[in-house]
C-alpha cells in the first residue's frame, strides 16, 4: 500500500480522502494546505454540506501539527510551495497535487528528481509540466511508470466526455460536433457581483467579467477547456469538436449536452443499447439510466459518466444528441483514487491480475476499444471547469 500526501485539502482533496477511507486503497500520511487551522480542517472533514457527515473519528492536535483520523496520525503542514513540504521524511510515495496552483504543477518534476516523492498526480489538465494525462476508459494503458512521473487526472468534464466520445467513434465514427457543459458554481465565484480572482495564478484577476457576477442568481455562459482536455487523450476525435459552458446556480452535479454527427447510420435505440451494454460491461466508468431523474439524483455516483437515455435523439441526417450526468467532485475523485492504484501497479512492476484496466478489457469486448478550484490552470483569459 502506497503512502500518499495530499497538497491542497479543499473540495477535491477532501473528497479523495473520504473515498479512500471508504475503500482503503492507499495510506494518507501527510496533508499540506495554506490554511494552518487544524481545527477548521477537522471540522470541514467531519461535516460536509454536500456529502454529509464523515463516518469516522477526526481529532486535531495543534501542538503536534497532526490530524488523527480513525486512529491514524497524519502530519499537517501549511507551506505555500509544494517543493517545500517535508514529504520525504514522512515516507510519501505519491503526492496528489490538488491545490490548483500552476507553480506547484511545474515544481513536480523537480520535487521527484530531488527524491521528495516518487510520483505526482495532478487533479486537473495542465498543458505543461506533466508527462502523461490519463482518463480511465480511454488511455490508462498508455501509462508507463518508467517514463511518466507527473501524471494528470484531467478534469471532471473530460473524464465524462472522453469515454463517451471514445465509444461513439469506435462504434459509429464521429465526424464533428459540439458539447455544452453545465457546471455548478466553484469556490472562486462570487455571491454578489465583483471581480473574480484566480486560484491557479495568485494575484491574477480573470478578464471574463461575466464570471464575476453573482453565482446564485444567473446562468453564466463562459469559455471552457473541456475539449482541450479531451484532446490531450483523444487528439483526433477532439479536434473535430468544440465546446462552451454555462456555470449554473447549483452546488453539485454537472451535465453535458453533446451533439455529434456520426459517419455510420444509427438510431436512438442503437445508441442507448450501446451505452446500456457499456454500463453492464464497464460499470466503474459508465452508467446508463432512463428514470425521471434530475441532477441531484446523481449525487455521489462513482462512475465517470451516466448517459440519460430519455434524451437520446437522432435526426434523419444522422445528427445525434446525448445528455450526460456526472458528479463533478465525487466521480472525478474516484478516478484520482483509481489512478493512485494504477501508479502503484507500475511501481511494483507486477503482472496484471484478473482486475485488468478498463482499456484492456475494452479490447476483449464487442466494442473493441483499444487500450474546482479551476480544474485547468493554464488559461489566462477565462477560468475553467
Radius of gyration: 20 Å
Q: Would you tell me which CATH topology of the largest domain applies?
A: Rossmann fold
| Name of the CATH superfamily of the largest domain | NAD(P)-binding Rossmann-like Domain
Rounded to the nearest angstrom, the distance between the terminal CA atoms is 32 Å
**Class derived from helix and strand content:** alpha/beta
CATH class of the largest domain: Alpha Beta
Q: Enumerate how many helices there are, as a single number.
A: 10
Q: Care to count the β-strands?
A: 19
- What is the strand arrangement across the widest sheet? 5-6-7-2-1-8-9-11-10
Characterize the main sheet: 9 strands, mixed
Commentary on this structure:
Helix content is 25%, strand content 24%. The chain contains 10 helices and 19 strands. The strands form 3 sheets. The protein has a 9-stranded mixed sheet. Strands 12, 13, 14, 15, 16, 17, 18 and 19 form an 8-stranded mixed sheet that branches. It has a two-stranded antiparallel sheet with strand order 3-4. Strand 1 (3-7), helix 1 and strand 2 (27-32) form a beta-alpha-beta unit. It is globular and about 70 Å long. 45% of the residues are buried.
Amino acid at each position: 500500500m502506497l503512502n500518499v500526501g495530499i497538497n491542497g485539502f479543499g473540495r477535491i482533496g477532501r473528497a479523495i480522502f473520504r473515498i479512500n477511507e471508504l475503500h482503503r486503497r492507499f495510506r494518507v500520511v501527510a496533508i499540506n494546505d495554506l490554511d494552518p487551522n487544524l481545527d477548521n480542517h477537522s471540522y470541514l472533514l467531519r461535516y460536509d454540506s454536500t456529502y454529509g457527515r464523515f463516518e469516522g473519528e477526526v481529532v486535531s492536535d495543534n501542538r503536534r501539527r497532526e490530524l488523527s483520523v480513525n486512529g491514524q496520525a497524519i502530519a499537517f503542514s501549511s507551506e505555500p510551495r509544494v517543493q517545500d513540504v517535508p514529504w520525504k521524511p514522512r515516507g510519501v510515495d505519491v503526492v496528489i497535487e490538488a491545490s490548483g496552483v500552476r507553480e506547484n504543477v511545474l515544481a513536480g518534476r523537480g520535487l521527484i528528481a530531488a527524491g521528495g516523492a516518487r510520483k505526482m498526480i495532478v487533479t486537473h489538465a495542465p498543458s505543461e509540466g506533466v508527462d502523461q494525462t490519463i482518463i480511465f476508459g480511454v488511455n490508462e494503458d498508455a501509462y508507463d511508470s518508467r517514463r511518466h512521473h507527473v501524471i494528470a487526472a484531467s478534469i471532471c468534464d473530460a473524464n465524462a466526455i472522453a469515454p463517451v466520445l471514445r465509444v461513439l467513434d469506435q462504434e459509429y465514427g464521429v465526424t464533428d460536433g459540439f458539447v455544452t457543459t453545465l457546471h455548478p458554481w466553484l469556490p472562486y465565484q462570487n455571491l454578489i457581483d465583483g471581480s473574480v480572482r484566480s486560484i491557479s495564478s495568485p494575484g491574477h484577476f480573470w478578464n471574463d467579467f461575466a464570471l464575476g457576477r453573482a453565482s446564485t442568481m444567473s446562468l453564466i455562459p463562459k469559455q471552457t477547456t473541456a475539449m482541450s482536455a479531451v484532446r490531450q487523450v483523444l487528439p483526433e476525435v477532439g479536434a473535430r469538436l468544440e465546446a462552451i459552458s454555462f456555470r449554473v446556480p447549483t452546488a453539485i452535479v454537472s451535465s453535458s449536452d453533446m451533439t455529434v454527427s456520426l459517419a455510420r447510420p444509427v438510431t436512438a435505440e442503437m445508441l442507448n443499447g450501446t451505452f446500456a451494454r457499456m454500463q453492464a460491461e464497464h460499470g466503474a466508468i459508465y452508467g446508463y439510466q432512463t428514470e425521471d431523474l434530475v441532477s441531484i439524483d446523481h449525487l455521489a455516483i462513482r462512475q465517470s459518466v451516466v448517459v440519460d437515455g430519455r434524451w437520446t435523439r437522432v435526426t434523419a441526417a444522422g445528427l445525434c444528441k446525448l445528455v450526460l450526468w456526472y458528479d463533478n467532485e465525487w466521480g472525478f475523485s474516484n478516478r484520482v483514487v483509481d489512478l493512485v492504484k494504477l501508479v502503484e501497479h507500475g511501481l511494483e512492476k507486477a503482472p496484471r491480475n484478473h482486475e485488468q484496466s478498463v482499456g484492456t478489457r475494452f479490447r476483449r469486448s464487442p466494442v473493441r476499444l483499444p487500450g474546482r478550484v479551476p480544474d485547468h490552470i493554464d488559461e489566462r483569459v477565462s477560468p475553467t471547469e
